[in-house]
Each structure stands twice: as structure tokens, then as C-alpha cells.
Design goal:
225 residues; mainly alpha; Endonuclease Iii, domain 2; 2 domains; 12 helices; 60% helix
Length: 225
């Protein structure tokens, strides 16, 4: 970003942050339900291309059967596949969960690691999954970029990045490090319930239903059309 562009986006970022804090509260919560580190990691793996609501419905039963890392490492693949079937991509997810559990036991003494470098060595754990886990479980400042974060960032003009890494880098420059965890959750929740892929709030009532319509590139472009 050029200097003037960076200053503009930082100003825009403060407007967005203030609105989302007012809309979603000062303490936005992760919607995945979990009790420990392996619960959370499994939930995040299951959430790929699946809603948190569906994941929570599945894990409500799953977590009663699999309580420890060892339980997952010893799981029968076919049984696990059947139990997580409704989350989609169940073959790959089941295999990755078992492999990851084995790796956590063998390499990290049964504790899900607290560094990005270690987390991304686990099967099925990419940068986004690792960032979500670190921010939620270890409260490590980072911004995980998923489809909601990407959509909202593009629409509001916070980022024009074409890859999750580019968007993550731009957002980290716009927002104060102490707000990174909160901003990730704000952008996810705003994208999930307000700035939806289809029929976002700004397109109902001529923009009056969204407090960010005045600074939203998406709304401005649609309004012109």
C-alpha cells in the first residue's frame, strides 16, 4: 500500500471496527463449542466447507465418545467417517483427524502446539485453521482469513488481496495488533449474518439496514447499477 492509501485504510478500519463493536458487542465469541484443545482443533477441521451449526450438532455426540487425543489416534476410520459424514469431505477429514492426533501424541506429548510453525505440520491443518486455533485457544494475536473475511474485506475496500495470505497481511497493517483476534471474529460474524454472499443487509432498504453502507464499495457499485 502507498502511504496515503495506508492512512486511508487505517481510517476506514477504525470506522469498521467501531461499527462492528457496536453491532456485535465488545466480546465476540467463537461459535464452535469445545472443552479442550483437541476438541477445538477437531471442530475447526470439521468446519471446512461446513457451517459451525452443523459441526456443533455432530460434535455434541462425537465429544462424548472421543475425549482425548489418544481416543482420536485409536479411532476406527470407518466409524469416524460415519460419525462426521454430515460435515462433508468426511473421508479426508477423518483421515486427517486420526493422523493429526497421532502426530500430536508423538511429536508434542499429547498437547496441541501453540505455534503456527508446529501447527501447520499437522495433517489437515493449514494456515487458516492454525490461526483460528491460535487466536481462540492460546489468544495469540492473528487474523484468520476464511470466505467471510475475504468477502467482507473486499466489499468494504479493506483489502484487494487475491490470496488469504495477501488479505491477512493487509488487515494486519490496518488494525492494531491488540485488535486482531477481535477483528477476525467480527469479520466472520458480520459476513455470516449481515454481509452475506447473497442478499446482504445493505441491499435491503436502500442501504439503511447496514451501518457500513456509506463506506462500502460493494453497495456503492450496486447502487450505481
Amino acid at each position: 500500500m502507498l502511504k496515503d492509501d495506508a492512512k486511508f485504510k487505517q481510517g476506514l478500519g477504525q470506522v469498521v471496527l467501531a461499527h462492528l463493536r457496536k453491532l456485535l458487542g465488545d466480546d465476540p465469541l467463537c461459535e464452535l463449542e469445545y472443552k479442550n484443545d483437541i476438541d477445538l482443533l477437531v471442530s475447526i477441521i470439521l468446519s471446512a466447507q461446513c457451517t459451525d451449526k452443523r459441526v456443533n450438532a455432530v460434535t455434541k455426540t462425537l465429544f462424548r465418545k472421543y475425549r482425548t487425543v489418544s481416543d482420536y489416534s485409536n479411532a476406527e476410520i470407518k466409524e469416524l467417517e460415519a460419525e462426521i459424514h454430515s460435515c462433508g469431505f468426511y473421508h479426508a477429514k477423518a483421515a486427517n483427524i486420526v493422523k493429526t492426533a497421532k502426530a500430536v501424541l508423538e511429536k508434542f506429548n499429547g498437547v496441541v502446539p501453540d505455534s503456527l510453525e508446529d501447527l501447520v505440520t499437522l495433517p489437515g491443518v493449514g494456515r487458516k485453521t492454525a490461526n483460528v486455533f491460535l487466536a481462540e485457544f492460546y489468544q495469540t494475536p492473528c487474523i484468520a482469513v476464511d470466505t467471510h473475511v475475504t468477502r467482507v474485506s473486499h466489499r468494504l475496500g479493506l483489502s484487494a488481496g487475491k490470496t488469504p495470505d495477501e488479505i491477512e497481511s493487509e488487515l494486519e497493517k490496518i488494525f492494531d495488533r491488540r485488535d486482531w483476534i477481535k477483528m477476525h471474529k467480527y469479520l466472520v460474524l458480520f459476513g455470516r449474518y449481515h454481509c452475506k454472499a447473497k442478499k446482504p443487509d445493505c441491499m435491503v432498504g436502500g442501504g439503511e439496514n447496514c451501518g457500513l453502507s456509506k463506506v462500502c464499495n460493494y453497495f456503492k457499485n450496486c447502487a450505481k447499477v
